[in-house]
Amino acid sequence: MPSDITYPSDYLDKVGYYDLLDLIALECHSSMGREMVGALTASTRPDAIRHRLERVREMRHLLSVTMELPTRRVADLRPTLGTLRAEGSYLTEEELAQVAQAIVSYEAWSRLLTKVQDNGAGEVSPLYPSLSRLVVGSEGLQEIAQTILRKLDPHGRLVDNASPRLAELRLALQREERAIAKLMRGLLTAAQAAGYVEEDAQATMRSGRPVLPVTAMHKRQIPGIVHDESATGKTLYIEPLEVVEANNRIRELESEEHREVIEILRQLTAPIRERRETLSQLYLSMGRIDAVCAIARFADEMHCSIPEVRNKPTIQWYQAVNPILQHTLSQEGKSVVPQDILLRYPNERILVISGPNAGGKSVCLKTVGLLQYMLQSGIPIPVHPDSVAGVFKHLAIEIGDNQSMEDDLSTYSSHLKHMRAMSAACGANSLLLIDEFGAGTEPELGGAIAEGLLALFNEQRAWGVITTHYRNLKEYATTHKGIVNGAMLYDQKEMKPLYELSIGQPGSSFALEIARQQGLPRQVLEYATALVGEEVIQSERYVQDIVRDKQYWQRKRTEIEHREQKLERLLADYEARLSKLKEQRQDLLTQAQQEAAQLLDQSRAQIERTIREIKESQAERQQTKEARQALSAYSEQLAQAETVEQTGSVERELERLKRRKERKERKRKQGDSPERGAQSQSPVKLSMPQPPKEGDEVRVTTMNVVGVLSELSDNSATVVVNGRIRITCKPNEIVRLGSERKEEQAQATAQPARTTNVVEHLHERRLDFSDRLDVRGMRAAEAIQAVQYFLDDAISLGFNRVEILHGTGTGALRVSIRELLDHYPGVSHYHDEDVRFGGAGITIVHLQE
Predict the structure, then answer these.
(1) Average model confidence (pLDDT) for the chain?
(2) CATH of the domain at 437
(3) Binding site for ATP: what residues are annotated?
(4) Are residues 518 and 410 part of one domain?
(5) Binding-site residue ranges
(6) Based on C-alpha coordinates, what's the Rg of the chain?
């Protein structure tokens, strides 16, 4: 294989790369841009490839966000600048206009490509860093362009006021021309009146001078200079002597005007000559920009993408199409069938494609060769954006009729010559593209040689796409790592190719089916069937069935992927809604805290008034101290309420504090009565609180709810609220209520607000509750206790189904948990999870409703 990246020398012709460049060149606005597009070649350096692609990506973004782009076509400045090498030369008005327009267009591009963005903290960076590197310095050129454009009119001609002398000369010319025109009109009228000139004749110009069309018989009657005569000789064109001197004056003025124009052109050319090298670099830079812009426009038109580019060889292209074929078919109103082409290290490096003739095998092979070279040339390729591409150091192709009369080589000999070159130079960074591998000679020997070459390519870790009809190559691909079969699909019902590649199974040639469709005699088909044997026919049918089944499952997979995408969108929507609800919840919490602060201020004022009343009534110091302590305790409790996350908890805390305040107020009033005063003189009897027992009414301190204690053990307690809600907690989290407290709490429980608070609390617990418990790694006793708490919470919160993740292991933990479930109140039944989601390692528990 030659040292160049491609083999053979006509590789780019065979894959259609030059046709592709012609399509891209149509988008260029300059000859330099077209030349640079035509000179695009592939690179083997991943960083260079990424840099080229990044330029195109930035240009595509620029095209999408910029409404007005510099689209004026730029003339080729190289010949113009070349004339300036000669001393004393000057540019024409047209050439000056071309230089000025090129500078203006370049300055417009320069402003676009060097835009910056604010990175914060006063720092800026280029908005298009890769494109900005194409811009070269053009200081002073804008002034040159403006000077030129001021002295040229829209048609590229020097304006009259380009210099004072030019204005003077052109004004004199206009006066002389008007005077001659007036004189000629008078002479024409007189000659027509005398019959020397036809009545319908008009004065005209010959050799740049005004003349009268005089009949030949009267030529002596009009003194002057004869400049021309008609074809018949009957009319002479005479310049009257009266205008000869005036015409001579005009010629003199025109000569002076021409000399003044040349002087102005020399003055305008001088700064361009001084900046000739800068202008050459500018034009070169503009060609590069034009080429990148053309590639970007082409990529947008063909819906091309920039895949992930990896350093090592790989091809993971999804929905790949051949851009040349796409362009051709689109003009006919047709579309290309996209292909998923996957070559991956280490087991799927070489793809062996089989299938019916005219089914798209060669097109698929050419597509790989073209797209890979496009990518390494810095041109986006028409694939799905999620595709992945690698970099190859050698690309080789063997396709078509290579018969050589000059070298006296047959098609097969030429084929073997290329195989020898490929096998001698290919390696782990080579991509081999071989069409109709082994064809052109006796099938058995050709297939054997092809199989030997395939084994050699695989041993050398080469990559490739190979098309074939040989059964032995399909079988070899099935049994050897590094090689994978692929099939071009065929619609057996409609008897037409689908042009769709399916990787994983070999394809069928459908020779008998196609022959039957084409109307071959039945005895021919029967003879062929008997000749190849029923085993071969049956194996072909098996292959067809496998391909059909694979198509079915691929469709199913696509449907599942679409459903997953829909679920992901729904999940994102629900997450957004949840986030919004959390924000609203936080707003409610903030509002509750503000109300709490307001209540604190009101309560503080009320208690201060109470203290003043106590002082004014000459109450004891101890009572005043107790009142102040109550105020302090109230403030602390309210501050704690502000830290509660749930709005319902804040409301309940405020309600509790309000009731406590009312109780203290009642106690204070009772203390003012004579009976209370008498009782205060006697010593206070302290009674130890009785421990709660089953059947007692208790308060759950962590939740601030009241219920009946139904079960009590050393490690847990179960409280029933409102006769139907079960709450499991620790024994130290419950307090037995006294008779006075029972009465008070019963009144509070009867209030709708109290019931609402309990329901709100349970609703919040339900939101925070996870229906999946993981006890892996726990001891059996710890796991049993955790499961009990878990089940009690699930039952009290109204869950119907929960999961217990215990793992498989020795199975002891699973057995212990299931023994508990067999007799646990509230459990309906249980079973293993589906094998796809954990099997015997997870127990699904269904709870009674």
Answers:
(1) 83
(2) 3.40.50.300
(3) 355-362
(4) yes
(5) 355-362
(6) 49
